[in-house]
């Protein structure tokens, strides 16, 4: 999946993956895709809930070798 921007939140504990995601999302235009890499197990629930509550769309998430990857499309 093509991402407009990728942020590395590996090694960061809650709430930092969300803080970094929000800051990066503010820099994108509607429809662009942010890819987030995190190792905090809580980030799966946190980013899913955050995307839904802020009008963005979680397109895909996966785990690979202990790294959670998320693709979030910026809403209008």
TrEMBL record:
The lineage of its organism: Bacteria, Bacillati, Bacillota, Bacilli, Bacillales. Gene3D superfamilies: TusA-like domain (3.30.110.40). This is UPF0033 domain-containing protein. CDD domains: SirA_YedF_YeeD. Residues 7-31 form the UPF0033 domain. InterPro entries: TusA-like, TusA-like_sf. Transmembrane segments: none annotated. PANTHER family: SULFUR CARRIER PROTEIN YEDF-RELATED (PTHR33279). Belongs to the sulfur carrier protein TusA family. Coiled coil: none annotated. It comes from the Bacteria. It comes from Brevibacillus panacihumi W25.
């Amino acid at each position: 999946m093509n991402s407009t921007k990728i942020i590395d939140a590996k090694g960061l504990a809650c709430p930092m993956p969300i803080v970094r995601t929000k800051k990066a999302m503010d820099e994108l235009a509607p429809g662009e895709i942010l890819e987030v890499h995190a190792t905090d197990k809580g980030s799966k629930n946190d980013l899913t809930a955050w995307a839904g509550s802020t009008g963005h769309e979680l397109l895909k998430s996966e785990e690979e070798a202990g790294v959670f990857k998320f693709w979030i499309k910026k809403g209008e």
